[in-house]
Amino acid sequence: MDFIIDGNAYLNVAISVTKNIAYRDKTIGAKYYVNDIFNEGKSILKQEVKIQFRNFCLNYLNSLIAPVGNNLSRVHLVFDSKSWRKDYTQEFFQESNFETSVAPSEFKYKGNRKKDDKIHLFFEYFQDEIAPKLVEEAGINYYRIDSTEGDDIIAYLCEILNGDIMIYTVDSDIKQLTYSLKNNVIVIYPKQMSKHKKLCVPDQFNPSHAVDEVDNFFSLNESHITLPAIDQTVKTLKSREYVEYVVDPVSEVFYKIFRGDKKDNIPKMDRMTPIKTDRLIKEISERYGKSSLSLLDEQDDKFISFVVEKISVLNKISDIDKLKDIRKHFIFNSKIIRLSSSLFPKSVVSNLKKDIDQKKFKNFSSKKFSNIKNNPSLI
C-alpha cells in the first residue's frame, strides 16, 4: 500500500500542538520565537520549541503509519508550492465581466484564510533538518513542485500509482479521489473540529488479484479475489476510533461546483440553492452516473451544455448572455475544484511529469524510521 500524506495538513497539526504546549509552558514565554542575532530582522524558533515540534512530528507520523502495518510499501510526503489557481482566478475574473452576483469585486483564491507571519519558521525547520533525514534514512518520498498545490500532486500520484492507496489530509476536496477505476483509495482525516476522526471510502472496492495468478486470469476462483490489504487497513482504522463514511463522488464534486467553497473563497453559482443543487445532481447521476466525472475531466461540450440547460430550466433563465456567464462560471469552478490532471494547466502537468514520472520511488523502512523516532537527537 502507498500512503500519501498531505504535508501541509500534517505540519499544521504539529505546529498547532507545539504552539499550544509553548503557550502553556511559562518557562518558554509568550512567543515561540526569538530574534536571530546572526541575521538582523529575522527570527528563529526557540530551542525548547524546536525540540517539542521535532518530537511531535515524529510521534504523530508514527501514529499515522501504524494502522497500515506490514501492508505499507511506500510513504509519500507532499507539500504545496505557489498555486497556479491564484493566477488562473485573477485572470478569469479580470476577463469575465459577469452581470450576475457571482463575480466578487476582488477575488482571491483561499483569500479567507488567516495567517501567522512566523509560522514559516516551523516549515523551514522541518524542510531543512527533519525532512532530509526522513528521506535519506527512512525512505520517505518527498515532493514540492513549482507552481503546484499539494492537492495536485496527490491527485497525480493517484493517477499513476498502481494498487491500494491511503491519503491523510484535512482537505475535504480530497474525498473525490476515492473514486478510481484502477486503485482502491481511502482518505483519513484527523479529529480537528469534528467529534471524531473520519475514514472516507468508495462505495465499492476494486478486487485485488493474487500475484501468482496474474497471467492466468481464467483460473481465478473466489478465494483468489480478495481485499486483504485494504480490508485489513479499514478494519484497523475503525478499531482506532475512525468513523467510516462512504463517498458519493458525483455529489461530492458537483455540489462544490454549484455551491462554491467559502473556505477557499470560491463563489457559488448564481441562484443555485441547496435544493436546486440536489435536484440537478440527481439528474446528472440518473443520466450519466459516474461517467459524469470523466465527461467533466474532458470538458465534454455536450455534457456542459446539458448542465447549463438544466440550470436554465431550474432558474427560468432564457437570456443568452446570462447563460454564457453560467457556462463560464461552471467551467471555472470545475477547474478549481475537480482534482484531475486533465484539467490542470499544461505547465503544471509538465512539472508533475518531469518531477514524478522519472522518479524512482523509495520503499519505506519501518526499522530505520523507528530508529529516528526513538532517537530524535539524531536530527
Provide structural commentary.
- There is one protein chain.
- With 379 residues, the protein is an alpha/beta fold.
- The protein folds into two domains: 1-26 and 49-80 and 114-247 and 346-379, 5'-nuclease (Rossmann fold), CATH 3.40.50; 249-344.
- It is 47% helix and 12% strand.
- The protein has 13 helices and eleven strands.
- The strands form three sheets. It has a seven-stranded mixed β-sheet with strand order 5-4-1-6-7-8-11, with helices on both faces. A two-stranded antiparallel sheet has the order 2-3. Strands 9-10 form a two-stranded antiparallel ribbon.
- α7 crosses α11.
- The longest helix is centred in the first third of the chain and has 19 residues, at 47-65.
- The chain is globular and about 65 Å long.
As for the number of domains, it is 2
CATH homolog superfamily of the largest domain: 5'-nuclease
Number of strands: 11
Q: What is the annotated CATH architecture of the largest domain?
A: 3-Layer(aba) Sandwich
How far apart the termini lie comes to 27 Å
**Strands side by side in the biggest sheet:** 5-4-1-6-7-8-11
**Spans with pLDDT under 50 lasting ≥5 residues?**
100-107, 209-226
H-E order: EHEEHEHHEHEEEEEHEHHHHHHH
The pLDDT mean sits at 87
Outline the biggest β-sheet. 7 strands, mixed
